[in-house]
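This section describes the prediction task in plain terms. A model, or a person checking by hand, is given the sequence of a single protein chain and must write out its three-dimensional structure as a string of tokens. No templates, partner chains or ligands are provided. The sample shown here is typical of the held-out split.
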Amino acid sequence: MAQQGGPARKARPRDRKVAQWSRDYVRLPGIPDEFIGADGQPRAVWSRYFDAFAALSTDEIERRFAAADRHLRDAGVTYRAPGDAVDRAWPLSHVPLLIGESEWQQIAAGIAQRATLLEGVLQDIYGDGRLIADGALPAAAIAGSADYLRPMVGVKPPGGRYLHFYAADIGRGPDGQWWVLGDRTQAPSGAGYALENRLVLSRAFNDLYKSMNVERVASFFEAFRDSLRATADRDEPRIGLLTPGRFSETYFEHATLARYLGFLLVEGDDLAVADDRLHIRTVAGLKRIDVLLRRVDANSLDPLELDASSQLGVAGLIDVIRKSGVVVANMPGSGVLEARSLLGFLPPLARRLLGEDLKMPHIATWWCGQTAAREEVLDRLDEFVIEGAYGQNVPGFSHHGPVLPGELPPVVRDHLRDAIAARGLDYVAQEQVRLSTTPVWDDGKLAPRPFVLRVFAAATEHGWAVMPGGFCRIADRLDSRAVSMGEGARAADVWVVADHAVAPSSLLPAVDSVRIRRITGVLPSRAADNLFWLGRYLERAEATLRLLRALSAPQRDPGKGPLHHAIEKIQRLLIAWGATSLGPRAQTAKIAADALQSPDEFGSALSLIRAAQRNASSLRERLSPDAWHVITQMEARLAVPVEGEEAVVQAAEVALQELASFSGLSNENMNRAAGWRFLRIGRRVERAVNTARFARQFSCDGATAEDLDVLLTLVDSQITYRSRYLLAPLLAPVRDLAVLDPYNPRSVAFQVEELNDHVASLPALHEGGLIERPQRLAVSTLAKLTAAEVETIDASWLFALEQDLLSLAEAVGSHYFPHGASAMRPEKLMGLA
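The expected answer:
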């Protein structure tokens, strides 16, 4: 590869390093490349980048790559490819895509113009319908799309516009100019991942990032957030981001955007319609929501008027939109513009609606619903790529993506020809275009790979703002014609490089423009439910881990720990808890291993941690990266099979330490608002129940010293007991310490005192000042423990205490959490705000 700078200059060490990295870098014939220009020389922006990059030593480069990967792993950045049942680690390319400032200005102008055009088309097809009436747009090109929503015809969009957020996939055409490959108007994805890519790479290469004068993206997100606020009809609107939930392929992105923009992350079950307004179900009743940024496809938004089988939307939402009760971005029905059938009509529509030609062309497209276009396609079928006119699939083909007729078997090709001739409106033909390439780092060298760049635009009061950067997807195969985040693909940050210093920016507003707050917004009922059960599952896992550790004590230290009859009690308890299905005759080591790691037993430590992880995954916008990291690492460690009793116990010890870490993080880092209280309520009620069960099992009449010793171990009170009593374990003091002692942080009484305080601090849902059922049960349970005497405690009393605690947990759940239709019971409708 020729080097920039001419032969007069002696090659520097940096130049030699770049030459070595790019020695095998070959620009593919006839295909534009970002690194190497048409003249065979590196583009100026890339020369500048690699000159600075080469200043780093090989070890330093690898260290920074590792730091970037570690951040992604620790932050839990994940995605799901179509068809995946589990999350994948985010595959970030360590080399960004670079675009010069002047070139980016041309891209931004083309994207802004296209967004303006598409907004005008939407206003017409859902409004006056002049384009169809005048023959500028065939009705079938619109009506054939499942995303054309007839219920939205004639509905004026609250907030005044259809499109609030737009994205376009672009790439370089054969002439080296940027072309539009596709429009994204339904619910454009990728901006959250672009933000995460930027955070990771700018930290790993902070000095390089600053020296390159990379345009910041924070101001774009700030403008978008402010524009959504401005569409509402009150000064401090409540904005929600509607997600399909944690099984969505891009749920992590939804949580990232909600956390970064300060929006409430909501699911369909979180929302309800009342008084022609949209409300969110919270632990304080229904609260009005003003703006909804949707990441759910429009057909799934309202089972009453759209897809009746959908469980992702809100019954009555379309009617609320008709009555201007909520602003929805983007408006339902905007996804119709993603139909490829429209592409061929956009150039003349631009001249009609904007009075100008498109600044950025798109791939030449023939919609086969028109006779002339269909005949041309059939005459030159092998020269085209065939796509579905209205969706991802080509009719008659099961796989996603384009079909190349020239590569099909003759029988299949003839079938496709007949299908186009019979029903051409379902097909479009596009010019065959190979994607342009960008460099990736591959085993210490640079290699070209095909890519697609997604560029984002947000509607603001000053026009369309285009994000300086974007979401770049890179294919692993050189012959790729399309890129999706599936097997072998990776993502890259996009650096728009200025020729001057770039002012820092952030989402932080001016101090004097912020109204001081000390409580973080409202808490959706679903989030409270997940926090409550997160606490319960973690506490159950801790109880199981303590049981199996006690079970293995004699084998680790002969002469200490429980005798045979106490071991049988532990085994029966593990069986009753669903931690193991192995009978009492099984070897202790096998029972312990089963209780630790069996994925098939619902009460095993692994299963309980996975249940906690599922709950935590629905709380990504509320948990710190450290808290999420603790849970994911715990699950990963427990999932690795271990052999031998010593290894089982060691794994249990590590898991207990990690649980303590999570408890410390929640205590020290979580705001003392309702969310923290529900997490604590879940842990306290579960610990109280478990401790009562331990006491009933090991401190009943006839309990031996070994039984009592086991109980002290299980409730982590050995040191406390020994510091108070210079005696072997005795029934009365052990019972008192485990059950009634309010000063022991592991006792039942201590848990119930804490529960009483937490429940009393929760919002009241009834009017009139009457004490509500959760608080009534907490008070009565505390009174029962306070008035009890250790001599009166027996198995039946402890069993009754367990039932009281379970009733309290049920009361909290039924009072504050969503339960389908019952979530609309009268007390939930009070206190609309």
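For orientation: Residues 1-8, 507-512, 555-561, 820-833 have pLDDT under 50 and may be disordered.
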